[in-house]
Design a protein that fits this description.
Helix 1 crosses helix 3 and helix 3 packs across helix 4. The protein is mainly alpha-helical. The chain has 6 helices and 2 strands, in the order βααβαααα.
Length: 131
Amino acid sequence: MARNTIGQVAARAGVGVETIRFYERSGLIRRPDAPNGGFREYPEEVVDRVRFIRHGKELGFALIEIADLLSLRTHPRSNCEEVRERVARKIKDVDGRIRSLRKIKTQLQKLATACDQRAGSSDCPILEALD
């Protein structure tokens, strides 16, 4: 079985070494024992696990949600429907964020339109709206 140093795992998974350490502290990956006077060596499957975590984060999943997905991935009684339910919840969450961001954008556009560029900052409607 191939073994990797922390730097090799990080490079192959597309993350930094500190990210690997953070995932260890978070319990997402297991920290290997250090051999006498040597470097810790990670099994090959850790690279795949870190990639899984990275891809999950790219899709907007929080680390706690990723931990849940990882447990479903390895639990013998879980099925694809359980994973689909988590994804459906995430889609609903993303839709809510999109609605919220659209409202924010509309408000910012109104403020930008109200701005008289010649006015001094003490008369700026944008700054006044933030008070």
